Amino acid sequence: MDFVNQSSFPAAWTLGFEPDGRELLVVVVKATYSIPGNEAEPLPAAVQVPLTEADEFTGEPGYSAPLHESDYGHRKLACDVILNGSAYTPDGRPVSSVPVSLRVGSVRKSFWVFGDRKWDGGITIFPTDPEPFVTQRISYDYAYGGCDFDDEAPDKSSTYRANPIGVGFHPLRPTRQLKGKPLPTTSATSQAITDTEGKHRPLAFGPVGRNFDPRLRFAGTYDQEWLDHRAPFWPDDFSYRYFQAAPEDQQTVFLDGDEEVVLENLTAAGLTRFRIPRNPMPVIFIPYRGEDREAKAVCDTLVVEPDEGRFTLTWRTSLPLRQSCFEIRQVVVGEVSHSWRSARRASNRGKTYYRNLADLIAKQPAEPEEEAE
């Protein structure tokens, strides 16, 4: 299959499959823009971030927060709005806490960020005061959650399934074992979290792990019934919602462009505003037989990274195939010229397209010369 990228951004294709086993031809395009100042129009960045081929983490996979998820998800039902970044204090003055806020389209999310804290004491235990900070990293690594066990009974463990890699969750560990353990740096209110067994909501703006609740439930059930009757296809209770990497309150309708992004205390400027660029992303599937199929890829992922001064937009479209990818001769991504479309329409009708009369005359076979008598 010939893959033609007419856009100015990284693009690629992969194969997926539907729950019924039909193959999917998945096309993905990712554009990187610089975050502008003074509400200016965002421009494409000089360096374009490549498509992410495999999940990336802040540290060791499985023991740290997801940072970038693979761009090759089969299909998304909504747009993921993700932010990887830090809290910034007003005017760069050290403080012990600051509110942060993210707004994109219908997404509205805010919470408090605190300085580092830990448990301290001797016979009695208490949390230290938040350390003053100028910037504080926001991540599920430091949000409420984690795994816990008693040092004296390590065979027993408990996991906070909404955020298995967080901090502050200690339902099994005795108080005497808490000294030096970190506390969460984010909270829904201006009051920092101090208890160890509460069902607090993990708060960050980054992608949630594939094994976090409730995302894990959308993956379906992989039991003996699945092994005997469904493998290797998705189980009956699989949902495409599994491919949504953002927390549920950071999912919105597909972005069309012109949506306003508002960041509060997530940049050194304090308040940053800009609008999503309008950039239609057509994709044309040209089969060996039959008519061309033209699709409009949808913008289903926005990743804002203020610390890097950039944001990325990812478009995706998925074509269910009759049999396999070998039925597709060519895929064209991006805008094509009017003459190209006219040539394709003529070709589909079994005709030859000529740009003008001169082109027609030039391509006619030459008349044979008459022999001299």
Structure write-up:
The protein has 373 residues and is mainly β. It folds into 2 domains: 1-84 and 221-240 and 251-258 and 275-373, no CATH class; 85-204, no CATH class. Helix content is 6%, strand content 35%. The protein contains 3 helices and 24 strands. The chain has helices at residues 224-229, 338-348, 357-362; strands spanning 2-5, 11-17, 23-34, 56-57, 66-68, 79-83, 85-88, 97-104, 107-114, 119-121, 125-127, 135-138, 144-150, 153-160, 167-168, 186-187, 251-252, 260-264, 271-275, 282-287, 293-296, 298-305, 310-320, 328-333. The strands form 7 sheets. A 6-stranded mixed beta sheet has the order 2-3-23-22-6-17, with no helix packed on it. Strands 16-9-8-18-19 form a 5-stranded antiparallel beta sheet, with no helix packed on it. The protein has a 4-stranded mixed beta sheet with strand order 1-24-20-21, with no helix packed on it. The longest helix has 11 residues, at 338-348.
